Amino acid sequence: MNWIYLITAGLFEVVWATTMKLSHGFTKLNYTIMTIVGLALSMGLLALAVKKMPMSLAYPIWTGVGAVGSIIVGVFLFGDKLSPLTWVFFILLLVSIVGIKFTSGS
């Protein structure tokens, strides 16, 4: 269950980062509210995950899921352009997240 909390927390990190951009500096109330709710859910689920998981495992995976998800949203929703070298580092980030999970013993 801790892994579900952790991955869901990472996904809500993507939600709040995306809605924060859509809020245009917190000037659009509906996106501002979604940002606050997404942030609260992300942090709350992370807190549940670290109750039973080592922080040295949970935090990097949480931030990694958020980073990977934000890159994907940026490219597909906002039309961000990434260089080929950036894509290489994106793949390395994915490999790192998976590697941390599989070498952690959890």
UniProtKB/TrEMBL annotation:
Its cellular-component GO annotations read: plasma membrane
- Gene3D superfamilies registered for this protein in UniProt: 1.10.3730.20
Principal location: membrane
Q: Which UniProt keywords apply?
A: Cell membrane, Membrane, Transmembrane, Transmembrane helix, Transport
The family this protein is said to belong to: Belongs to the drug/metabolite transporter (DMT) superfamily. Small multidrug resistance (SMR) (TC 2.A.7.1) family.
Q: How does it sit in the membrane?
A: Multi-pass membrane protein
Which organism was this protein described from? Companilactobacillus zhachilii
Q: What is this protein called?
A: Multidrug efflux SMR transporter
Record GO terms (molecular function): transmembrane transporter activity
Q: Where in the cell is it found?
A: Cell membrane
InterPro entries, alphabetized: EmrE-like (IPR037185), Small_drug/metabolite_transptr (IPR000390), Small_multidrug_res (IPR045324)
Where are the bilayer-spanning segments?
A: 33-50, 57-79, 85-103
Q: Which SUPFAM superfamilies match?
A: Multidrug resistance efflux transporter EmrE
